Amino acid sequence: MIARFRITVLLLPLxxxxxxxxxxxxxxxxxxxxxxxxxxxxxxxxxxxxxxxxERVEPVAxxxxxxxxxxLNCDFRIVVDDxxxxxxxxxxxxxxxxxxxxxxxxxxxxxxxxxxxxxxILSHEAAHHIARHLDRRRESTRxxxxxxxxxxxxxxxxxxxxxxxxxxxxxxGSRVYAKDYELEADAIGARIARDAGFDPINxxxxxxxxxxxxxxxxxxxxxxSNRVEAVRAALR
Length: 236
Hints:
It is built from 9 helices and 6 strands. It has 2 domains: 2-131, no CATH class; 134-175. The protein is an alpha+beta fold. Its cofactor is Zn(2+).
């Protein structure tokens, strides 16, 4: 179940859910190690910190969105996935009404160590919308699927073989720019977090506690060192 947050409510419902989470560490922002989460502050403080940070980040993200992408819907909605068994995760999507939505799981709220990390994560997800990454990935996926299917058809493929080629193209198309999108979101997010009054350099220390994905071919995330450098470069 996803609980509506919209920057003003959802506080007390989080308190009982934050205790004793044991989840695998997967997610688009970074991947902390698996195992029991060590909550560095009280459950009450973790929930209140999230609300406080979100209230400061959202209006700045909206202002940057309206400035840099005025044709987009910039009315961000921040929601909490209240499943305590969800992975440590945060991601961005667009709802049926066209509003950009930032989803943060309860284990992620418990895992972050300070306001700067929480601000950087929220800002990073807002940046994905501002940079139109969902639309750009969708276009790349469709184009690659069409290219692969056309090539297969010219080679005489049909039926299941044609479908397989299209699916392979779609997978490759969805990943070819994935690392670039993450670095772009890190850079834009760093500036949003800074303008909201947080320290993005300290926020990016989140990666120090996350397994490094390395520079895998068609990987979905760049090396952690590249992400930290993207933050530093954006703030120079």
